[in-house]
Amino acid sequence: MNGIKRNSNRSKLINSDHIDKLVSGVTGRRDKALFQLMRDTGARSGEVVGMNTDSLEFESHELPDGTMRIGGTVKIYNPKSGKERTICLSTRAVAALTEYLKERGDDGLPALFVTKTGRITSAMILQMIHRTCDQIGVERIGPRQLRDQFAVAFIKGGGSPFVLPQLLGISPSGPFMRKHMSLNCLPVKTSPLSTGLELI
Q1: Along the 200 residues of the chain, how does pLDDT read in single tens digits?
Q2: Euclidean distance between CA atoms 154 and 150, whole angstroms
Q3: pTM
Q4: Cα–Cα distance for residue pair 98/102, rounded to 1 Å
């Protein structure tokens, strides 16, 4: 329709510098923790909305030099498939979540991310990301681009294309994986056993 500007960058991949600027520009411990969680797990906004405080598990390990390393995991429930997966958290995500929960205190609410009216919503997450983009003067992105960047960073960091679908809670032959193969983000080869593509 005339007069409607469509988003031509829906499938456009953003680089890690873009994400770094956004993380640095996020204000407030809750939003910073939320951003780090989405960045480091590739979770959908709807999955983040459904997370509770007991979805997190933190643990510490003593390194050979005597220093303590704090790590953790998060359980991610996919409401569409009804399946749950557990993802390891980075040190930076654990730190951001710890600071947020400490500031929040014991309010008795089960939801991990809350507002003054209760559990955060997907619309609120999108508004937060857009607001941060506008504040630091970068192109607007959404949760989908954070998920895309997680996939790209995982593969470029040496992660297996076979493991990626498990981390994202998706089908190995679904549209998400096909999109990244078409954008040359994942290595592919023609399988001699089928007429499709096989990840390598």
Answers
A1: 444 334 444 445 566 787 888 888 888 999 999 999 999 899 999 999 999 999 999 987 777 777 767 789 999 999 888 899 999 998 999 999 999 999 999 999 999 999 999 999 999 999 999 999 999 888 898 998 888 888 888 878 888 888 888 888 877 766 666 665 554 454 443 322 222 323 32
A2: 6
A3: 0.77
A4: 6
Angstrom distance (rounded) from CA 33 to CA 37: 6
* In the chain, domain spans: 16-146
Q: Which residue has the tokens 């096909």?
A: 178
Tokens 């929040």 correspond to 104
> Is CATH 3.40.50.300 what the domain over 16-146 is classified as, yes or no?
no
- Specify the 3-state DSSP secondary structure of 7: coil
